[in-house]
Design goal:
- This protein has 20 helices and 13 strands.
- By secondary structure, it is α/β, with parallel strands linked by helices.
- The protein has three domains: 210 residues, P-loop containing nucleotide triphosphate hydrolases (Rossmann fold); 127 residues, no CATH class; 106 residues, Helicase, Ruva Protein, domain 3.
- It has a five-stranded parallel β-sheet with strand order 2-7-10-1-11, with helices on both faces. Strands 3-4 form a two-stranded antiparallel sheet.
- A hairpin with a 2-residue loop joins strand 8 and strand 9.
- The protein starts with a helix and ends with a helix.
- The relative contact order is 0.13.
Length: 469
């Protein structure tokens, strides 16, 4: 199986042993073996829990994880790839944007509401895929009705008389079916894609003048108001002219919506959010602080206490119904340069029993990041410029030089980990990217001398490198 086929059809959770999970993560994230092992075990424990007796199953709670390490070393990517591998609803949020009631910020329960919405979108897409063929057939029939209205809508004098509901000599019906079959063959072959048809589409409902109330815990109220007004004022339809190719997509979506059982979608999405959901709490170190009675520490500890019920297990009311958070896996992450996990309130610390420290990236890691992962930066740039007919190639010494410059830039300025490679590579290939459509020589080789030549001024001027790299 190719990599693309394996990514589009990832193995079921039942088939993933911890070692295989780590190997799958290795295709996208370099190093950080300890963190990969920990999340692999956490994912496998979900499989184990499902096979327990019902009375014990509910008692087994997820072992939440704190990842410690500087930015850009792979914390978010490991979590995101883990969720994709498990086909689980995944939500990343910054803990610092939540504040306790009374301070400007968002309600922490919105985390669970957003997770459920993501799960609904995921399940709905899967349901649409299952009914895609049936929806396509129904959309095709509607398109044919637009291209060739049925006999009941046609009144050719002397052939069809609606008042008598009959066709003279039966010749018209035969002719109509034959013409329709010819159009169907042309439609399937794509020969009618440029023809224009008129389709009735739903108008978007007007925006409600209540967006300002969505600040502190009011997202649910706004959603309920939108739903209520939507029921009071059903969406209107308006005719719109479009090509047959566009109309096919619109009609297929409409037919798929009719075939999807939304009640079943919500039930399955709720189950997935509760049993398989993964929440990535980034910047947890920025809310680490104890009560000092004044200043920002009051708000930081307030956020922790608001997060506590969700992390330890509670029921959150949403517009789709209650969602239990007992078995959602929470992965918290932070650099912890100034604070440390022990600065979190004891109750919250106890809900994150597993901790792993991610290692800073070295030059050797940068070389591997540039070349090994399936989505490696060099592969991306080579593929992008190939669309312009440019054959871009990197010599090994050029890759080494790029990695060394990235490490140097991280040392001189803020250490942003592997994200520094994006800045360096974009600066390095600026001229090629700009001139690619006009290049006469389509073979471009990037060697160490090329790297030094194009980045020499920036490297020498430390002040300039702070702004450029």
């Amino acid at each position: 199986m190719t990599d693309s086929a394996r990514d589009s059809n990832p193995p079921a959770l039942d088939d993933l042993a911890p070692r295989q999970i780590v190997e799958a993560l290795d295709r996208y994230v370099v190093g950080q073996h300890g963190a990969k092992r920990m999340v692999a075990i956490a994912l496998r424990n979900r499989w184990r829990r499902r096979r327990l007796a019902p009375d014990l199953r509910d008692e087994v709670l997820p072992k939440n994880i704190i990842m410690m390490g500087p930015t850009g070393v792979g914390k978010t990517e490991i979590s995101r790839r883990l969720a994709k591998l498990a086909r689980a609803p995944f939500l990343k949020v910054e803990a610092s944007k939540f504040t306790e009631v009374g301070y400007v910020g968002r309600d922490v329960e919105s985390i669970i509401r957003d997770l459920l919405e993501l799960a609904i979108t995921m399940v709905k897409a899967e349901s649409a895929e299952r009914v895609r063929d049936r929806a396509a057939r129904q959309a095709e029939e509607r398109l044919l009705d637009l291209l060739l209205p049925p006999p009941a809508l046609r009144t050719p004098t002397g052939i069809y008389d609606p008042s008598r509901d009959q066709t003279t000599a039966g010749s018209f019906s035969d002719s109509y079916e034959q013409t329709r079959d010819k159009l169907r063959q042309q439609l399937k072959a794509g020969r009618l894609d440029e023809r224009t048809v008129e389709v009735e589409v739903k108008e978007k409902p007007p925006a409600l003048p209540v967006g300002v109330i969505s600040n502190v815990g009011m997202e649910e109220m706004e959603g309920s108001l939108r739903e209520m007004f939507g029921n009071l004022f059903p969406a209107k339809k308006k005719p719109r002219k479009m090509s047959v190719a566009e109309a096919r997509q619109v009609l297929e979506q409409e037919e798929a919506q009719k075939l999807i059982d939304m009640d079943e979608v919500v039930r399955e999405a709720t189950r997935r959010a509760e049993q398989d959901g993964i929440v990535f709490l980034d910047e947890i170190d920025k809310i680490a602080g104890r009560e000092r009675g004044f200043g920002p520490d009051v708000s930081r500890e307030g956020v922790q206490r608001d997060l506590l019920p969700i992390v330890e297990g509670s029921t959150v009311n949403t517009k789709h119904g209650p969602v239990k958070t007992d078995h959602i896996l929470f992965i918290a992450a932070g650099a912890f340069h100034i604070s440390k996990p022990s600065d979190l309130i004891p109750e919250l610390q106890g809900r994150f029993p597993l901790r792993v420290e991610l290692e800073p990236l070295t030059k050797e890691d940068f070389v591997r990041i540039l070349t090994e992962p399936k989505n490696a930066l060099i592969r991306q740039y080579v593929a992008m410029l190939a669309t312009e007919g440019v054959d871009l190639a990197f010599t090994p010494d050029a890759i080494e030089e790029v990695a060394a410059i990235a490490v140097m830039a991280n040392d001189r300025t803020e250490n942003i980990g592997a994200r520094r490679l994006f800045t360096v590579m974009e600066r390095l290939l600026d001229a090629v990217s700009f001139e690619a459509p006009e290049l006469k020589e389509k073979k471009v080789v990037i060697d160490a001398a090329y790297v030094k030549q194009h980045l020499a001024d920036v490297i020498k001027d430390e002040d300039l490198s702070r702004y450029i790299l």
